[in-house]
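To assess whether ligand presence alters the predicted conformation, the chain was also submitted together with flavin mononucleotide. Input:
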Amino acid sequence: MKDIFEEGKVYEVLLVTKSNVTPIGVVRKGNKFHFKLFGGKSFQEIKNSPFAVLHVIQDVELLIKAALNMELNIEFEDAKTVPIKRIKGMPATIEGKVEWKEEQWKDELGETKVLSCVLTPTYQEMSLIPIKPLSRADYALLEMGVLLTRLFVATRKNKVDLARKIYSKIWENYQLYKHLGGKSELAEKIIGLSVISVRWNT
Ligand SMILES: Cc1cc2nc3c(=O)[nH]c(=O)nc-3n(C[C@H](O)[C@H](O)[C@H](O)COP(=O)(O)O)c2cc1C
């Protein structure tokens, strides 16, 4: 797995905890994977049961649907080395034990608690799947998804200027997505949720 994760670079993967699936950005340092959890269900679950499965996927829509808690068309099976489930049929799987530390975090969205996590792999598995060509449309959609989760926080905290700034970045990425031939209705959904979020909270 070392070969596919360049050390120090952030990669977006699916995190499976005791009963939750969510996208996270991980960074490999040596043979360990580092990530941060900002509040939410995964945060609590890792604290109560420090095991996780990381799935490397090429499906941007699955990452975004998991972030928005939409229905995912997936099946679970028991993980091999940790007492939680993992998703069946994923291209690559890393199971591991998680050491965590609660820390204070400050950025433009404000101050909050984060769970700083380090996963030590106990088992890794990679399957041969056909490679998918790179599309900038996928990256634009991925960026829209990440920005939307930031917009939710900005509007919840009543940061009006920041929320407008994030909204306009989402809109720019949407234009790019369409320009590059993106067709997923998830893009419209993100725009819809952004408009609602900005209108109702600012
Ligand atoms: C591509 C992508 C990457 C994300 N990376 C992270 C991350 O590294 N840490 C985090 O706390 N939330 C991340 N998020 C946001 C979470 O998915 C979102 O806040 C989620 O609702 C919180 O997770 P929960 O299901 O654990 O409550 C990401 C979202 C997207 C779309």
